[in-house]
Amino acid sequence: MAGAIASRMSFSSLKRKQPKTFTVRIVTMDAEMEFNCEMKWKGKDLFDLVCRTLGLRETWFFGLQYTIKDTVAWLKMDKKVLDHDVSKEEPVTFHFLAKFYPENAEEELVQEITQHLFFLQVKKQILDEKIYCPPEASVLLASYAVQAKLTLQSTKSRVAFFEEL
């Protein structure tokens, strides 16, 4: 019986149809990633994929930003990606950025990756003079950054030392 049915079906009809896709480039503050997205994907599908790839659970602070004709806009989660006014040239580029800032970063930013992404974005915005930071605060923030970097290097050195034992 199965043989009779299979003989009536052509080989091409047995093959699974591959969904049509387009390439997307996601730029974070310290990395770039490329994904193949299905044409039917909504903003939420792409955003969730990016967050899973980054290992990010505190997703509510972030969004995907794009630029079109010198205008910055945010990808809407409930709208198809290609229905936005994005460039149709592949790869379509989005920037993964903090969209909302917490009132108390120390208490609200729990995950290390969230803290890292916020730090890089705020640092860049201060250096690009997009947000104002008084000179005294700039010196304090720079000292924190140096201290964090030295602490990280010291920790890596200790781990390497104990791995050699």
- Provide the spatial order of strands within the biggest beta sheet: 2-1-5-3-4
Classify the beta-strand content into a percent band. Answer: 15-25%
Structural class: alpha+beta
* Order of helix and strand elements from N to C terminus: HHEEHEEEHHH
Number of strands: 5
Q: How large is the count of helical segments?
A: 6
Mean pLDDT: 83
Q: How many domains is the backbone divided into?
A: 2
- End-to-end Cα distance, whole Å, is 68 Å
Question: Helical residue percent?
Answer: 40-55%
| CATH level 1 name of the largest domain | Alpha Beta
Most strands sheet: 5 strands, mixed
Task: Tell me which CATH architecture of the largest domain applies here.
Answer: Roll
Q: Might you state the CATH topology name of the largest domain?
A: Ubiquitin-like (UB roll)
* Rg computed from alpha carbons, rounded to a whole number of angstroms: 23 Å
The CATH superfamily label of the largest domain reads: Phosphatidylinositol 3-kinase Catalytic Subunit, Chain A, domain 1
Uncertain runs are none
The gist of it:
Helix content is about 45%, strand content about 20%. With about 160 residues, it is α+β, with helices and mostly antiparallel strands.
